[in-house]
Design brief:
- The protein is mostly helical.
- It has 2 domains: 48 residues, no CATH class; 221 residues, MetI-like fold, CATH 1.10.3720.
- The chain is 79% helix and 0% strand.
- It has 11 helices and no strands.
- Helix 4 crosses helix 10.
- The longest helix has 39 residues.
- The protein is globular and about 75 Å long.
Length: 273
């Protein structure tokens, strides 16, 4: 019964998703061609390329190595910055929650730096890092780092103090308290921070690639998907701009979905009802 129910739910969910996508594409096509088909130009959308033209543009680049190399470069920067942010952000968030002295010293500095948009670091990153790839990776790291730290900090602070007392009363060491109490309790917060941080990293890496002009001396593909969009704009290929935008959306969706799957696998006690 449960298996049948789950299959029914998944099929209904997939049906709704497909219906929403189809309806959106139809409305987009009609809006883009409203001047020709309806005799009235719908403001904004009538100037956008129709989906049919975007599909043709996609078929024109899907077999080009440069397009997939742009995917590779952006993905490499995203995963590099994201993994470093996780490796540094998770311990920092836990230490800020567990140690008052450390929190009093580090948190004020952290709070001053946190509101600064990651893209505001682009000029300094270009100056201080030896290559544009490293500078973009650094900005990408910042996009995920602060979000991860805040989520881990809030998750660790929300742990019921009675859990600590119970563990200590049973003779648990500090390492056992961390492994059996703190870490399992903060995994949901880590997962939320990871999902949000991954979305921000894709936003930041594309914008950084466009702003820094990465790859301008390496040809069209040198700067990743951000530079792909920018070079398409400069070349007047608006259909390819949409191709790049959709590529970023697909990449972000796949990455976030993967993180959610890992999160659900690592927290079986939080299965959705």
């Amino acid at each position: 019964m449960t298996i049948v129910t789950n299959r029914t739910f998944l099929s209904e969910k997939a049906g709704r998703a497909i219906t929403a996508i189809v309806v959106s594409l139809v409305l987009w096509e009609i809006g883009s061609r409203s001047r020709t088909w309806l005799g009235v130009a719908i403001p904004g959308i009538s100037a956008a390329p129709p989906p049919s033209a975007v599909v043709i543009a996609f078929l024109g680049v899907v077999f080009e190595i440069s397009y997939w190399y742009s995917w590779y470069l952006s993905s490499l920067r995203v995963f590099g910055g994201f993994l470093i942010a996780m490796l540094l952000g998770i311990p920092l968030g836990i230490m800020l929650a567990m140690n008052r002295t450390f929190n009093g010293i580090v948190f004020p500095v952290f709070e001053v730096l946190r509101p600064i948009p990651p893209l505001a670091w682009v000029p300094l990153a270009i100056i201080f890092w030896p290559t544009q790839g490293l500078s973009i990776g650094f900005v990408t790291f910042l996009g995920a780092f602060f979000t991860i730290v805040i989520n881990v900090l809030d998750g660790a602070r929300s742990i019921d103090g009675r859990f600590y007392s119970a563990a200590q009363s049973m003779g648990a060491s500090r390492w056992q308290v961390f492994r059996r109490v703190i870490l399992p309790a903060t995994i949901p917060s880590i997962s939320v921070g990871a999902v949000v941080g991954m979305g921000i990293t894709w936003e930041v890496v594309v914008a950084a690639e466009m702003i820094s002009g990465s790859g301008s001396s390496m040809g069209r593909a040198g700067g990743g998907l951000g530079f792909f969009i920018w070079s398409s704009y400069l070349g007047g290929s608006y259909e390819q701009i949409i191709v790049g935008m959709i590529s970023i959306g697909v990449a972000g969706y796949l990455c976030s979905s993967g993180i959610r799957m890992l999160s659900e696998a690592s927290t079986p006690w939080l299965k959705r009802r």
